[in-house]
Amino acid sequence: MPGLFLGSQYKKIMRMTMRSVMRKISIGLAKESKRYISSAMTRGPNTWKDNQSSQILLSPPLVSLDIPEIWASDSNYYDHPSSWKNSNVQIATIIDGKSIAEEIRSRVASEVKRMKEYVGQVPGLAVILVGQRRDSQTYVRNKIKACEEAGIKSVLVELPNSCAEYDVMTSVLKFNEDPSIHGILVQLPLPEWMLLVQSVSASLLHLDEEKILSMLSLEKDVDGFHPLNMGNLAMRGREPLFISCTPKGCIELLIRYGVEIMGKKAVVVGRSNIVGLPISLLLQRHHATVSIVHACTKNPEQITSEADIVVTAAGVPNLIRSNWLKPGAVVIDVGTCPIEDPSAEYGYRLVGDVCFEEALRVASAVTPVPGGVGPMTIAMLLCNTFDSAKRLHGFS
Ligand SMILES: NC(=O)C1=CN([C@@H]2O[C@H](COP(=O)(O)OP(=O)(O)OC[C@H]3O[C@@H](n4cnc5c(N)ncnc54)[C@H](OP(=O)(O)O)[C@@H]3O)[C@@H](O)[C@H]2O)C=CC1
Ligand SMILES: Nc1nc(=O)c2c([nH]1)NC[C@@H]1CN(c3ccc(C(=O)N[C@@H](CCC(=O)O)C(=O)O)cc3)C=[N+]21
User: Fold this and answer.
1) What is the DSSP letter of 216?
2) pLDDT (tens digit per residue) in 263-282
3) Count of other CB atoms within 10 angstroms of residue 337
4) Is 343 helix (H, G, I), strand (E, B) or coil?
5) What is the mean pLDDT of the segment spanning 167-196?
6) Using a 6 Å CB cutoff, which residues line ligand 1?
7) DSSP-assigned states of every residue in 79-140
């Protein structure tokens, strides 16, 4: 018994010593990261030259909801100089998603080349586009071009607005079985109505997006929109096979710019299945305290102005004004809205949810639109497709 007692006492002392050592390391890390964000603001993002990692992304593949041992709160992290609070000059770093995405895409391209040499296979992405929405056609074209540049095979199935639900499902099932296809993407939104043809009669049918997404092979759901992948993202101890591209891209940007997420207050504006919801789940995985603001939220600006990190995906141009932002907040603008502009090449330009000029004077870092999150979404799609091919071919 005394031996046992001594054993447990010893373990306890060891645990306490380890905790104090870890806390010191943690404080050291926090100080280090404070130094890093200020240098990040002048020197730009973290790159592979800084981090000699062989992996493509800097964010961890999956983050458990368990708090790591080294956690120590650092509530003063976002205390910025008072000059930040009423400044008329730009103080924010512009987060350059475009160049980070380019770096990731070229990294994927060289990994795809390596895969081709060793396995004799390249990753394959199938895209199913229903209807003639111009913005969807543009996004799909960009995704296919990005695949080509990375050496990823792509197959596009274009179905008319008047196709039957059966046609979409047949395409999904065909790609589920095709061994040269490692990722399947059904471009959203789907048209609300489809034509159901039964022998001689035809009727309009409400298109069941959930049914179609549920039919995707879990192993090929590179968008991460399958209810099981989404559910696993939400649940402690579960791991989705894929994390949705846009949220994954947002986290990668935060990590590359040295923004600490753990213990920070984050506000997500928007709660859609494809953006708002998975972003809020992923931020929780990274141990942020997350609030969600949506169209029915009262005093949204007050809630948002308490956040250290704001991720906005409402699709409302210039919704986020300077009074919505805490001085020094990091702002990730997912919103992408076309607005008329006769002086622009195509008669329109893209704007985000954030009033960019105002955010530049209040935030510590902000993503532009275009050139912020959008290119990262495409880069993450390539990463997910490559990861899927790696998994299916046992390539590492
Ligand atoms: N850059 C990228 O890679 C991507 C960009 N996008 C862009 O992101 C934006 C959002 O897309 P998506 O999520 O599909 O859009 P949805 O329309 O599906 O969702 C919008 C969300 O924003 C909320 N919302 C709308 N108006 C307000 C408001 N005034 N105040 C607070 N919340 C509001 C809605 O609330 P409620 O639920 O109450 O209705 C809803 O949850 C779009 O501009 C889209 O183009 C989307 C995907 C990728
Ligand atoms: N199944 C599915 N998966 C998606 O990921 C998906 C979808 N459906 N439906 C629509 C939204 C929207 N989306 C974008 C992707 C790239 C840019 C992008 O690259 N934007 C560029 C500008 C592009 C341009 O100039 O047109 C930028 O912001 O710099 C934007 C938006 C993915 N979505």
Assistant:
1) S
2) 999 999 999 999 999 999 99
3) 18
4) coil
5) 91
6) 246, 269-272, 274-276, 293-296, 300, 313-316, 319, 334-337, 373-374, 377
7) ---GGGTT-SS--SEEP-HHHHHHHHHHHHHHHHHHHHHHHS---EEEEEEES--HHHHHHH
How far is ligand 1, taken at its centre, from the CA of residue 268, in Å?
A: 10
Domain boundaries, the chain: 120-190+208-217, 244-374
Q: Ligand 1, residue 296: give the atom nearest the CA.
A: 38
The answer to whether 120-190+208-217 and 244-374 have equal CATH topology is yes
Residue pLDDT, tens place only, 352-395:
999 999 999 999 999 999 999 999 999 999 999 999 999 999 99
Q: Which of 272, 336, 351, 385 to mutate to test the pocket of ligand 2 (most atoms within 8 A of CB)?
A: 336
Residues designated as active site: 143, 187, 223
Ligand 1 atom nearest the C-alpha of 369 is: 1
Which ligand gives the minimal distance to the CA of 352?
Answer: 1
pTM beyond 0.80, yes or no: yes
Compute the distance between CA of residue 145 and CA of residue 136 in angstroms, rounded to an integer: 14
120-190+208-217 is classed in which CATH architecture?
3-Layer(aba) Sandwich (3.40)
pLDDT digits (tens, 9 = 90+) for 337-349: 989 999 988 888 9
According to the model, what pLDDT value does residue 24 have? 40
CA 353 to ligand 1 centroid distance, Å? 9
Closest CA to 74 of 206, 215, 297, 259: 259
- d(CA 253, CA 97) in angstroms, rounded, equals 7
CB proximity list for 110: less than 8 A, separation 6 or greater = none
Indicate the fold that domain 244-374 takes in CATH: Rossmann fold (3.40.50)
